[in-house]
Amino acid sequence: MFSLLNLQSLLGLAVIVAVCWAMSENRRVFPWRLAVGAVAVQALIVLALFAIPGSQVVLAAVTGAVDGLAQATSRGTQFVFGYLAGGDQPYAVTNDGALFTFAFQVLPLILVISALSALLWHWKILKWITLGFGFLFQKTMGLGGASALAVAANIFLGMIESPLVIRAYLDKLTRSELFLMMVVGLATVAGSTMVAYATILGPVLPNAAGHVLVASIVSAPAGVLLARVMVPEKPGEGGAHADYSSGLKYDSAVDAIVKGTSDGLMVVLNISAVLIVFVGLVALVNVMLGGLWLFDGPVTVERLLGWVFMPIAWLTGVEWSEAGRAGWLLGVKLTLTEFVAFIELGKVPPAEMSERTRMLMTYALCGFANIGSVGITVTGLSVLIPERRAEVLSLVWKALFAGFVSTLMAACIVGVMPAAVFGL
Q1: Distance CA 339, CA 88 (A)
Q2: Among 215, 220, 216, 208, residue whose Cα is nearest residue 59
Q3: CA dihedral defined by 224, 228, 229, 231, rounded to 10 degrees?
Q4: How far apart are CA 264 and CA 30, in angstroms?
Q5: What was the pLDDT predicted at 357?
Q6: Are the C-beta atoms of 191 and 156 separated by less than 8 Å?
Q7: Which residue range is the domain that position 397 belongs to?
Q8: 13-43: b or e for each residue (b if 16 or more CB lie within 10 Å)?
Q9: Residues of the chain with pLDDT > 70: what percent?
Q10: Measured between alpha carbons, how far is residue 305 from residues 208, 312, 342, 406 in Å?
């Protein structure tokens, strides 16, 4: 049965679309067909993996695959780093929780999944899955072949890797299509990081792996819709047909593994560097705010973000009593990246946050839309299409906003669903 919380999420969905429409470059044009198609695709994907009889078998398989990958990666990490990565300890351990080290327990997963993704692409398994989603998006949302393929690739590849799939068409994309590709890249996450997020949330969220997978998939059509609302396609433009035989290629299976590992290493280094810098900068700001006191505690960036994002979290369907902490998590995602936000979400004991709120936050946090990704987006696309760098710079902050609210829209879609769909 529907409840007030479901209606709350429905209100949030309407508010998100209305705000994006208010920021549109052409408010006289609204893509009604795309809006219906995007919402329908999102709802059907969620229902297919959570409500259809037998879907739990699929979710169990996804969870099992994630656990298997985590265990396999742990063996390799322990071989290189020994007890630092959770291997046999040379001393008595009094606090098992202190053994968790982000650099050794989470980041190595990215290397393994990146190599595995490249191998599956070379074997055409991932390629055909991507083409399937591209066909779905093309038929249900009216996207051109190149845009549909780029959107589908973003579900499994990174926001810089996915444009490589349609590299030959990047200079031919219209302003609206370029913006759409940027937004979807910021609204989704790479397959390599999906597994890392699922590993972090596994102990505190049932079906964590399934939720993270669905979160990245349903954020793609949300990004498409909001991108087209904010930067509408002009009549007669766009719709370039992509040659699906071209794009990302590897010479052999070994070449795919080596290049995939190398690409994963760059991702790991970027994530590590961004986390060090942004966590350090926030700590510096907190030191500068140390003399200020408001209500019952010192003013910190975290508390300020919690207040700012509190009503936004409420609009996704979170109860007001939990909106403060949920809003803080949204602020952490925007400033410190979704990695830190997922770690903080994983730290919240089950007794201190309802399963519904934890589930909604999983969808709301699952995307690359953070301040650090702005630099990554500009740098990556400037290399691929240097002649359009000025255009990318003019769109990137608007794309960050659209990517951020796309994940909120995904959370609203889930929040609208009856609790029984998720066994709550």
Answers
A1: 27
A2: 208
A3: 130
A4: 39
A5: 94
A6: yes
A7: 4-422
A8: bebbbeebeeeeeeeeeebeebbebbbebbe
A9: 89
A10: 26, 11, 16, 19
Cβ-based burial of 187 (10 A; exposed 0-12, middle 13-18, buried ≥19): buried
How far apart, in whole angstroms, are the C-alpha atoms of residue 270 and residue 213?
Answer: 22
Fill in the DSSP letter of residue 77: H
Q: How many domains does the chain have?
A: 1
CB hemisphere CA count around 138 (13 angstroms): 19
Reduce the DSSP state of residue 316 to 3 states and report it.
Answer: coil
In which residue are the tokens 């579900």 written? Answer: 155
**Residue 330 binned pLDDT confidence (cut-offs 50, 70, 90):** very high
Rounded to an integer, what distance in angstroms lies between the CA atom of residue 31 and that of residue 238?
Answer: 15
* Contact predicate 222/409, CB 8 Å: yes
pLDDT at 72: 82
Instruction: Tell me the sheet residues that pair with 294.
Output: 297
Token readout for 242 is: 């992509």
Q: Could you tell me the sign of the dihedral formed by the alpha carbons of 384, 390, 395, 396, in that order? A: positive
Q: Which residues contact 6 (CB under 8 A, 6 or more apart)?
A: 317, 415, 416, 417, 418
What are the b/e assignments for 410-423, b being 16+ CB within 10 Å?
Answer: bbbbbbbbebeebe
Q: Is 385 left (phi over 0), alpha (psi -120 to 50) or beta?
A: beta
Measured in whole angstroms, how far is the alpha carbon of residue 311 from the centre of its chain?
21
Rounded CA-CA distance 101/112 in Å is 17
pLDDT tens digits, one per residue of 175-227: 888 899 899 989 988 776 777 788 888 888 888 888 888 888 889 889 999 99
In this structure, are residues 314 and 329 in contact, taking their beta carbons and an 8 Å threshold?
no
Bridge partners, 293 (sequence order)? 298
pLDDT of 231 above 70: yes
| Mean pLDDT in residue range 308-319 | 94
